[in-house]
Amino acid sequence: MASAAQPAAVAVPSGPASGAAPGTAPGGVRPPARRKRSVPAWAWALPPVAALGLVFLYPLVLVALQSLAPDSGGHSLAPYREVFQEASFRKALWNTVWIAVSSTAGCMLLGFVLALVIAFVPFPGGRLLSRFIDIFLAFPSFLITLALLFLYGTVGMANGAWTDLTGAASGPVDFLRTPWGVLLAEITYFTPFVMRPLLAAFSQVDTAQLEVASSLGARAPRIVRQVILPEALPSLAAGGSLVLVLCLNEFGIVLFTGAKGVTTLPMLVYSKAILDGDYPGACVVAVVAVALSVTLYALYRAVLARTAGGARRAGA
What we know:
- This protein starts with 40 loop residues before the first helix and ends with a helix.
- The chain is built from twelve helices and no strands.
- Helix 3 (87-120) packs antiparallel against helix 9, helix 8 packs across helix 9 and helix 9 packs antiparallel against helix 12.
- It has helices spanning 41-66, 78-84, 87-120, 126-136, 141-152, 157-166, 179-202, 207-215, 220-248, 252-257, 265-275, 279-315.
- Residues 1-10 have low confidence and may be disordered.
């Protein structure tokens, strides 16, 4: 009796004829995919950081190093001691601080009132005036000072009208050459920098809230204090912060008014570097001006942030 035939061995085809997917190892196991090499995230930050350091930080470092390099050679704090002992430096520091703070306060008050009128009091030409504010931001500061000189200068229109009427040799208006003239010029020039963000904030105020408050008997001052002001505080803080920093470093207005005895830190830097040739002293004053700007800006923002937070909680 014949035995059962053994089954024939079946050969497993290999290669492309096997029908396996390309790149598949024998046995149907796909090898692990190779990871593509990618540029680290920190590498993308190197070009902008390098450009920032070259354009902004490197000049500041040079000024700081020069402030530590007296004319006698070497590096020491002697230039700082010499500058801090000068009465002119202390006077310039005081003038810079009080003019900047006073100008900022005046710009915030005047800017808030004017922006409030433009945004909520309809009158002919309101939109045109709002557009003009955008254009005004591009004007140079000396242009405003020059216009004030034409109006209130020694031979300006106001004094000219007075001498024509009275026959006097000179007019009574002579405040532009005083600190008050500098203050007026800075408030006139920098107020639109506060109005612009305020107008943007006022455009987002829900008019339905104003109508409801008015229908409930709230008068205009209360509506402004409890409804509009809390919404405007962040924008008011932003505009005021910008104006404070700009006023601390303003040079053109002080120079063009020709105010006698009004020397600010930027004017002192110019005097020491250009007129006296005292470059270490000028760098010392510049370092102090930068430190003052950063410190007052940080303090101002911290105080206004706390004020804005309290106003929001009170409004809620």
